[in-house]
């Protein structure tokens, strides 16, 4: 382990600081366009008649549609220690369906900072949690995303 | 749309595979639909200047493919509870990708049938570039 952590007090000050909330209307056209863009022909995501007779009674969004409801910028820019950044992964938890006509309020905060030594040298793992709350105050879903910041450029796989 | 029931699923069962092939046109459509306009996904020169072999598929689009793998399999009355993915390697357009999965656990929680699956997106060479996990609830027969 290095003597000095790359995780500074300035970085720690970002922990659990939520972005300003942004509220989105879940529009029918946007949901259908998203389903078409990912190549998903599931009628629950685009066919009003099928959706009416389905479990939700209305068109619902494909699970990762939430990705298009982009959170606001952090109040201050997070000071990344290294020039290279990778998207490490994503973890969604779903609690309520997202229906056409819903209004979803999105906030995001960095919730965890960890440092590891790996094949790319010292790496900083930044985990952020995005929260999606519907118009009646239910937490519809969360998404945790992990960004990896590292000093050494990745080699070809 | 076919419905699968909790009673019919066993540990070790295959999640019906989903083939995909992302064209550059699909990446542009996904950029527009998702709002992710990072140029490494549609501007070849920009991608090369960033040390990439060319344009690459959005991680979030691969995540969406794996979401479809699960929602197709679980049927209209299944409910997706959790979907996690790790981006282990980049994927490029115009390759025959396959999303697949295996049932790893089933149990009843508070009267609800819960099923866990290991899932992954494989590239044209068959390598699992994007492994993950899904947890769903499935309806019970007669309920």
Write the layout of secondary structure elements.
The complex is a heterodimer of chains A (157) and B (143).
Chain A: H1 9-12, E1 22-25, H2 28-37, H3 48-52, E2 84-94, E3 103-118, E4 121-133, E5 139-150
Antiparallel strand pairs in A: 1-3, 2-5, 3-4, 4-5
Chain B: E1 14-20, H1 24-34, H2 44-49, H3 59-74, E2 79-86, E3 97-109, E4 112-122, E5 128-138
CATH topology of the domain at 9-26 and 71-150 in chain A: Thiol Ester Dehydrase, Chain A
Radius of gyration of chain A: 19 Å
Q: Please trace the helix and strand order of chain A, writing H or E for each element.
A: HEHHEEEE
Distance between the termini of chain A: 26 Å
Describe the sheet with the most strands of chain B: 5 strands, antiparallel
Shape of chain A: elongated
Query: From the 3D coordinates, which CATH architecture of chain B would you assign?
Result: Roll
Uncertain runs of chain B are none
Distance between the termini of chain B: 18 Å
Textual characterization of the structure:
The complex is a heterodimer of chains A (157) and B (143). Chain A has 157 residues and is mainly beta. In chain A, 12% of the residues lie in helices and 36% in strands. Chain A has three helices and five strands, in the order H-E-H-H-E-E-E-E. The longest helix of chain A has 10 residues, at 28-37. The relative contact order of chain A is 0.22. Chain B has 143 residues and is of the alpha+beta class. Chain B is built from three helices and five strands; from the N terminus they run E-H-H-H-E-E-E-E. In chain B, 23% of the residues lie in helices and 35% in strands. In chain B, strand 4 (112-122) and strand 5 form a beta hairpin. Chain B has one domain: Thiol Ester Dehydrase, Chain A (Roll). The interface between A and B is medium-sized, with 32 and 36 residues. Strand 2 of chain A pairs antiparallel with strand 2 of chain B, so a sheet runs across the interface.
């Amino acid at each position: 382990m290095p003597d000095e952590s790359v995780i500074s007090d300035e970085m720690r000050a970002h922990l659990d600081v939520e972005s300003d909330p942004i509220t989105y209307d879940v529009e029918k056209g946007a949901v259908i366009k998203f389903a078409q863009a990912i190549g998903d022909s599931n009628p629950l995501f685009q066919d009003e008649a099928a959706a009416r007779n389905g479990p939700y009674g209305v068109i619902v969004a494909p699970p990762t549609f939430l990705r298009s409801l982009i959170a606001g910028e952090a109040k201050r820019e997070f000071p990344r220690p290294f020039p290279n950044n990778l998207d490490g992964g994503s973890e969604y938890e779903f609690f309520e369906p997202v229906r056409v006509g819903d209004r979803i309020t999105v906030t995001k905060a960095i919730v965890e900072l960890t440092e590891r030594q790996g094949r790319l040298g010292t790496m900083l793992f930044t985990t952020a949690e995005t929260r999606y709350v519907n118009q009646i105050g239910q937490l519809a879903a969360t998404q945790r995303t992990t960004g990896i910041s590292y000093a050494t450029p990745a080699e070809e796989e | 749309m076919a419905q699968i029931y909790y009673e019919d699923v066993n540990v070790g069962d295959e999640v019906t595979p989903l083939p995909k092939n992302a064209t550059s046109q699909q990446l542009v459509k996904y950029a527009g639909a998702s709002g992710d306009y990072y140029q490494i996904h549609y501007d070849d020169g920009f991608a090369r200047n960033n040390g990439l072999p060319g344009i690459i598929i959005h991680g979030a689009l691969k995540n969406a493919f794996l979401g479809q793998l699960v929602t197709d399999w679980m049927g209209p009355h299944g409910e997706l509870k959790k979907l996690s993915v790790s981006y282990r390697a980049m994927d490029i357009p115009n390759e025959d990708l396959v999303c697949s999965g295996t049932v790893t656990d089933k149990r009843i929680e508070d009267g609800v049938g819960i099923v866990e699956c290991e899932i992954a997106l494989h590239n044209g060479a068959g390598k699992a570039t994007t492994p993950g996990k899904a947890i769903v609830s499935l309806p019970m027969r007669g309920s």
